[in-house]
Amino acid sequence: MTWLITGGAGYIGAHVVRAMCEAGERTVVYDDLSTGISERVPDGVPLVVGSTLDAEHVTRALVDHDVSGVVHLAAKKQVGESVRQPLVYYRENIEGLRVLLESVTRVGVPSFVFSSSAAVYGMPDVHLVTEETPCLPISPYGETKLAGEWLVRATARATGLSTACLRYFNVAGSAAPELADVGVYNLIPMVFERLTANDPPRIFGDDYPTPDGTCIRDYIHVADLAEAHVAAARALRTSPGRDLTLNIGRGEGVSVREMIDRINAITGYDRPPTVTPRRPGDPARVVASADRAATELAWKAKHDVQDMISSAWEGWVRLHPSAARG
Description:
Oligomer: single chain
Number of strands: 13
Strand content: 15-25%
CATH class of the largest domain: Alpha Beta
Strand order of the largest sheet: 3-2-1-4-5-6-10
């Protein structure tokens, strides 16, 4: 069986490709390289450069490589950017998915794993977010992920396609320094950037209804997330006709202040944070219930926050050697 990994040269995608290869699965990467890095693709794994908006190119890749399953990660994913450019996000994330699904069903590919997000929940007012928690996204990015799930499920009902929609929580860390996240859009790399520029890390609001007043999030190591994709792909192969929607998180919350304190300790910096006003749309607490993933996939996260920060720091220092302390 060969799996086509769209976005497989990206941060998360490269980890999924590596995990699939290590599990003995044949893979081919499909990526437009707008943010992906070709050097992340392992030797021996074919790389097809193209957009999911190009129906002819997608179909040719599926046929040429005898693809029998797709893991779809290619997407625009910056929340703030999606607010400024909603049409771009709907084109890339929804139309790209529609074109891909059309090619998948035309060729007869039986299995499809979709990269979704906890952003579909918006600002949930619950202690633990389950898959039954109402989906009320508050950004165009979150809207595209929810609409993407609808499209995937509708296609499954109409065609018999086996599907899994994986709702990621806050992804962090790296399985190897060369696979590190090069973007500065999430908390850990944002703090790294501030520390190494001799600036204090920023906390956006400390008056939330949480124990220390800062937002609480569920962080998942990217290597654990990649293993969840392997488990989902195999579940679809061994049990055709499945229609899974699963949270992928650890079920443990860590506050922003706690995270910054741990980052300071691990990196060797000792720079207290500064508090700035809240950002619009930041919920106080978003923590997953991952029980369904454990039941359906026999999967559970193995890495803790310490692993995430330490591995992310190794990747950061590789890209920014002057950042190392001592």
